[in-house]
Amino acid sequence: MNGQPISGASAGSRRKRGGARLRTLAAGAMLLVLTACGGGDPAPGSAGGQNPSQGGQQENAASQAVVTIAPKDGADSVATSGALKVTAEQGKLTTVTVADSKGTEVEGKLAADGASWQPVGHLAAGTQYKVHAVAKDAEGRESAKDTTFTTLVPKNTFIGHYTPEDGSTVGVGMPVSVNFTRGITNPEAVEKAIKVTAEPAVRIEGHWFGNDRLDFRPEKYWAAGTKVTVAFNLDGVEGRPGVYGKQKKTISFTIGRRQVSTVDASAKTMKVERDGKIIKTIPITAGAPSTTTYNGQMVISEKYKVTRMNGATVGFGGEYDIKDVPHAMRLSTSGTFVHGNYWASAGTFGSANVSHGCVGLRDARGAGDGSTPAAWFYDRSLIGDVVIVKNSKDKEIKPDNGLNGWNMDWSEWIK
């Protein structure tokens, strides 16, 4: 019986069981592939899963940081000061960019804790700005926000008329003087918007004369050769309620050689000092006893080869009206000049004071004689040169009477 062959029925049963086993293995392999590709939820606690009890978060979760920008997106007629602020909650600001339509960025300051950002100055009026801000939460995930707004278009504006002129070369006494077209009630904001710098560097401070004039100067006269730059950023500054500046420009000027001339009203002479050396002593005539010349440091603010001088315009009625005063240089707003005089005898200069408060030098009518003392001084003087008057029987000139702030102590100037 041991050699008896296996029957057909028994062999077929084996083949069926073997086929079923192969089908089961194949199904298992397919299930494994589907599980790996399908990303199905693994059982809690398994290697590929996350245990809710551990309090973890998925890597692609949204940032918890919330960026807020004021004013809101699309806002119009936004105030140029105090309206723009960027803040972050549940995170810290990492990037804040504010720029106008030309790409000019607004300088700002980020708080030490990263929670807020504000501009350090005012915005321009009638200008569209784009804001881009990014913050990160504690997990380093970023949240960004972008907005656009437009500042107000003012109905009332002001500008500042300034001296000296852009590109000019001036004397060592020349201040930067700005006269505003409207009275200013917010002087801090206006002064902050005008930046005066010098090369070589020197401390420069502003001083207000009334509410419509602001002058800048260093403690002492400028050094010869100094380069001065004045940046006006008044566009958008609210100088008084509802009145905004509309000026944005930069000018520069150069300080020339140092020339300081000293008039001794008692000795009736003027000594011209150039770069520390006396280059000429000129006989003069100063104010008569009844119309004395101011004492003090005065700055040449205007030059006229020939001009008219009418006593009625400066409180002297009809005492004089000279239509062709030669080589005239203004020292005060009230009418003090150093000028040529052709109507007094040559012997007057250096011996008598006969003027109505001016400093007179011998000259020829028509200003055509270049050899006269007045012509010599005129040709060698710059706007901004200093003329000091001493030993006159008059008071010191007021600092705001012309460009004469040098008559104010530095401690008073910087108050």
Low-confidence stretches: 1-57
CATH topology of the largest domain: L,D-transpeptidase catalytic domain-like
Count of DSSP strands: 27
The oligomeric state is single chain
Report the mean per-residue pLDDT as an integer. 89
Pfam families: Big_10 (PF17964), YkuD (PF03734)
Organism: Streptomyces lateritius
Protein name: Ig-like domain-containing protein
Pathway: Cell wall biogenesis; peptidoglycan biosynthesis
Give the arrangement of secondary structure elements:
Blueprint: H1 8-38, E1 66-70, E2 85-89, E3 92-100, E4 108-110, E5 116-119, E6 128-136, E7 142-150, E8 156-158, E9 160-163, E10 169-170, E11 176-180, H2 187-192, E12 194-199, E13 205-208, E14 213-217, E15 227-233, E16 238-240, E17 243-245, E18 248-255, E19 259-264, E20 269-274, E21 277-283, E22 296-299, E23 302-310, E24 321-330, E25 337-341, E26 359-362, H3 373-379, E27 386-390, H4 410-413
Parallel strand pairs: 8-17, 10-18, 19-27, 25-26
Antiparallel strand pairs: 1-2, 2-5, 3-6, 4-5, 6-7, 9-11, 11-14, 12-15, 13-14, 15-18, 16-17, 19-20, 20-21, 22-27, 23-24, 24-25
Brief overview:
The protein has 415 residues and is mainly beta. Helix content is 12%, strand content 36%. The chain is elongated, with a radius of gyration of 42 Å.
Write a concise keyword list for the protein shown above.
415 residues, 12% helix, cell shape, disordered N terminus, mainly beta, elongated, single chain, L,D-transpeptidase catalytic domain-like, 4 helices, Immunoglobulin-like, Big_10, cell wall biogenesis/degradation, 3 domains, LD-transpeptidase, peptidoglycan synthesis
